[in-house]
Amino acid sequence: MSVLIPPKALRSTLSSLFLATVAGAALTAPPPDGGLADLQASVQVLISGTQPGTVLLPRPTLDTSAAVHALLQKPLSGDTAVRIAVLNNPDLQVAMGAAGTSISDAVRSDNPAKVEMRQTITVLSARAYKAWVSAVAAEQSVRLLEEAKNTLEISGDLTRRMTQVGNVSKLTQARAQLALSESAVALARSRSSALAARENLTVVLGLWGAPAGYQLEAGLPALPKQAIEVPDVEAHALQARADLRVARAQWQLKQARATSPDAEGLWDAVGDAASVRSVAVKLRSQAREVYFAYRTAFDIARYLQVEVLPLRTFIHDELVLRYNGMLTSIFDVLADSQARTMTSQAAVMAHRDFWLAHADLQALLAGAPMEGLKSSASESAIAAPGAASASH
Predict the structure, then answer these.
(1) Percent helix, strand, coil in the chain (nearest 5)?
(2) Whole-angstrom Cα distance, residue 83 to residue 103?
(3) d(CA 317, CA 72)
(4) Count of alpha carbons within 13 Å of 26, Cβ hemisphere only?
(5) What is the pLDDT of residue 319?
(6) How far, in Å, CA of 353 to CA of 129, rounded?
(7) How does pLDDT run across 114-173, given as a tens digit for each residue?
(8) Can you list the domains of the chain with their CATH numbers?
């Protein structure tokens, strides 16, 4: 037996069904950018210099300015610098805009555009961390050279007064004045280098205006107790390069589809195989070079911190004791203070070199092409992925 529904109730029921359908569609419909969950998840383990946690990627629905403002509320760490760069670097946003939906969840993880975008983000993260390391070390160097100049000013003032009473020769005074002048020039150059390093970091972070007045952390992270052991660094580097795996798979697929073993086809096969092998040979060489640089930088930085700086401190303390016992002059103490400051600066530069080499090694093991990390103070723009078409 059929049941008659009053027109008013029917309209109400249809309206409810329509609203429920629309609401359900809104919940299941993909976001305007096609979704970046896959790319977001895959880059977490590829990004250099960050602590555990989600590193946000830019997208049309995200207010990046608010997120960047929140990250800049404390002195800038290496972790925060990487997060800001990935979120706010305009060149990365240009690259992602050019790639469009070819890097979205709508395409497979091994889509060439998505593979290249992961490499782009990895390179950017390493560049940001290296820029931060250089900026922090440059500021430390400035502080040390300021200390050295202050010491020389004290020494110069004492020399001048002792020359006036005939206790020190004019030759000694001239040498003190020359040392002070050279120190002033070195400090000016150091300040200029620090400004350049900071501006380089600012560009990588994509900042301008008030946010560009950020404060850096006072120092670099402590050296690890041991260097990373990578016995087969070549194999790790080859395994991490997704683009190389894609190229090899495409060559193998092309070989399987070949129908006629004519001369031209054979030469094409030789050329394709050689192209893959050429990339692999260069990557193996880069892996050996990067790991050797990393171990060397660690050994030097560790030696300066564990052996040389303690010796400098011991010598300085002994000289102060001898001065207090009137066994040496104030000039000897001041000269040693100057030498101690210079050794500290050398240790800071070695500390910097280690973390730069560490970032290169991490990027290598994450599958980033080393060519993207060779830029110096004037950073090159990030290239947009060449493959913008989605291949399922």
Answers:
(1) 70, 0, 30
(2) 20
(3) 41
(4) 6
(5) 83
(6) 12
(7) 888 998 999 999 999 999 999 999 999 999 999 889 888 888 888 888 888 888 888 888
(8) 32-259+273-373 (1.20.1600.10)
